[in-house]
Fold these 2 entries.
Entry 1:
Amino acid sequence: MHWEKGKERAMSFNEQSISEAFNKAVIKTFADMAFIDVISEHHHEGNISYSGIMGLEFSHPGRGYILFYMTKDCKKHLVENIYGEEWINLSDMEIDDCLLEILNVLAGEFLKNLYGEREKVAMSFPRLYFDEETVPVDPGQLKFVYNGEGALFFARLSLDE
Amino acid sequence: MAYDKILIVDDSVTSRMIIKRCFHIAGYEKSEYSEAEDGLAALNFLKEHPVDLIVSDLNMPRMDGATFVRRLKMKEGTSGIPVIIISSMGNDALREELKETGVFSVLRKPLSPDKILDALGEGEGEGDEF
Amino acid sequence: MKLFEVGIGELGVSSDRESEIKTYALGSCVALVIYDKVNRIGGMIHIALPYGEINKEKAEKLPTYFADTGLPLLFKKMNEIGAKRSTSWIKLVGGASVIKSCESFDIGKRNVLAVRKILWNKKLRIVKEDVGGDYSRTVSLNIGDGSVTVSNSGKNWKI
């Protein structure tokens, strides 16, 4: 399935179900792992700042990738809640690892929501992008904006079945 | 049943922390925990250190969880150790595949104390003060 | 049967086996119930908001109003009265979404998440939850046998 650029149309059922599956995965993972209440901000306009990008690719059942863009405050909240420790007491390795593990779990949850439990899933290891030029760009990407108890963050999803 | 020595195998230090804490909360506070960052490190550890239960991730570098389990089941000293797989990719399809390799249980991440209790039953809690 | 009523932002503990602790009108509020089944000691707190930092003055005057300042006080009381962690269970009730507005956030959900976070850090397990939905609950704990009864609109059920 491809998105056709430039065509004006109402959101298709497939696009809607993909968005629902993704939103559900984000909300559930942030609540279950980090005890953070996340709300989808459908109508957000304008730029949202971020520090660092993390991403993960998946290849089965569908092929695509997920990218997350968060501020330092947002990351701090996540990591401190999971570890039960203040940011300054954690190493850079623990912090990065924690964020990547959240992405790993979230991606698994999203694929389960979309494809169900009957098909095997294949995902890459999640990674940090240190150079924005290496971040994949796809005109068909869906963008999702969220509010995690006051901190805005966003995600991009590309899916090609 | 008491699992006195538990080995946690996962390349994520955060995941190892979460697994250990979930086991604590499920009542397995008295158990002794060891950690390995992938299947290869775990196999090396097991040469010298017997354990009662292994909890392993699937997607790991150097040696993934499925290969690790197959190697475990091939060796006399380790073939009888119960193994729980915990994975973000844990689903029915994976469960069916891994059952044939002798995996005790497949749990989906994020792990919770309740999932451990469903798989293993309650541990013996300790501690007097809240 | 003696009845100890816990109001919003209050807590109560009891070792009297002829008593019951009860709290009412849990809309978005949550009640945490602890019961030591061997020593037959129970406690309950009625929490209104997750974190005291949003109103430091109130948190100082009434710490039991908030999950993060209130739960440690409940634990302290339970320790003082002789309850043992290893023989106790914890149940959570409430956290309903009673305000229908997409503009405001869900306080009920946030209360539940705040309690879960605090218990995660204390390595304590919630054995049973009756949370969410869009209706108010009343909950009572019978100190004699540890039974927890939840009610709404004339219907009762045990958890």
Entry 2:
Amino acid sequence: MSRFFRAEIVSNLPLNNKNNLLTIKPLEPATEPDPGQFYMVEVSNSKTPLLSRPFSFFRKTPEGIQFLFEIRGKGTLMMKGFKGGEVIHMLGPLGRGYPELEDDKIPMLVAGGIGIASIFPLVQAFGKKACLFYGARDKEGLLMLDELKGLVGELIISTDDGSMGRRGTVIDVFMDFLMQTQAKACDYTIYACGRKQMLEVLSRTALNNGIKGYISTEENMACGIGACLGCAVKVKSKELRAKSRRIKNINSELRTLDYELMYKMVCKDGPVFPLEEIVW
Amino acid sequence: MNLSVNIGHLKLKNPVITASGTFGYGEEYAEFVDLNKLGAIVVKGISLKPMEGNPSPRICETPCGMLNAIGLQNVGLKDFLKKKLPYLRRFSTPVIVNVLANTIQGYVRLSTALDDSGVDGIELNVSCPNVKKGGISFGTDKKTLAKLVSKVRQSVKGSVLITKLSPNVSNIQEFSKIAEDSGSDALSLINTIPAMAIDIETRKPRLANITGGLSGPAIKPIAIRMVWESYNTVKIPIIGMGGIMNADDVIEFMLAGATAVAVGTANFVNPKATIEIIEGIEQYLRRKGINDVKEIIGKLHAA
């Protein structure tokens, strides 16, 4: 069983003019993905675009593995042209997905736009226990709403322009929720995926309110397996700090901190990190 | 069929090597590639102390290629010897270590330690475009290059000494000759080409480091030309690299004069690229009725 395998395009369904639902079927025995893991998808077997593109897996169905993708650039534009029956190379599942929920916690899922792809397997896993905040710039950016409605305990929709659900960012809505909720903030565990700015604000808000959780990060990457070292993300590492405490000559400015700053790789150490680890 | 080639006193099972910085420390690819089947493994550039690398974005895609400015993130000499090398030693494939320092003394210390540890080859990286000190500044100044290679030569006994040249010089022949005359056993060329890309919407450079090194098929014709020019100047073997994606590219490099080749960016696109390339070389030789791969080295019909 190899994580580098050939797959047949089963279908490539446009959801609107910006987003597609891609279903692929591995033509070789393939490893099962965990929520939050991703695949490198070969866009073209010619030399341009050269690199494969990383996508979180969205859902497993009897037909195959599904991905949601937003048409953003050259690579995704070419993927829009994928036709049923075509065969592509895929690499995955890759990276570390979302950790399991501790027994007494309530999962609070936060998805921005296409970030729902990474969050969806958690929706399936947590079901009615979960509360999902799902926001986008406009209603075009909100995908798979019919599927989501029946699955989660509470679904709170928002759009920046107010074209669907509440007007405002997913963070605004999240803050309102925190003000009103009966439960203690520390009863929740956040699982989030979305644009960098959203994740930054969410992480700061969560930390200020004493909520722990996990976010799925994104960087340009080439290999997907920790070899090119392209997808670096700066983190506060407590493990490394513990080690360097034993070394005498450390920078005096850093001596007061209980962590060390270092780069980790989105593809191998992530894409999911505890939200308190990321340096913004 | 004989695929073996020699780089100095080092015998390779076949001419296919991994390019430094594209194959991690080998273990990253063990799941996809039988490491025993490779000609040699060149690991990510090693420095005396660990280096944390550059901020993101470190890479971006360009037409038929990519830019990188990783900034030589590596575990440092001590951890390499302790944690990475023992793993690679479990395979029969020669291990070549790419080294980088910001002083000649640093290169000497690194090379001595690695030579003592019994690595099969040392590749002097005098051509990294992405660090402020060292790297390319050694590879683009003739006197410094001569001094560096001679000094390292004195302390390297068992390992094959390879100099990785920069394409960022006006005359690759001069630099090839200097490396040879200073005692290098082999040359590897080319390293990535300093390059840049801009996002016109944000007006920001696509790399946090602003500039980076261009690799991939886009640079192959430049690399082929430099291998050819270098081949016509020196007697020592050349490891050719730059945009190799398949066996056809390897044949092209070998016809231009490369004794061996390094596969780099292709590993990112297809983790099994090296193995598929070795199979492809065999098919080409069979199709042409050639029994020994060495027969094609430099056999370009130029006239």
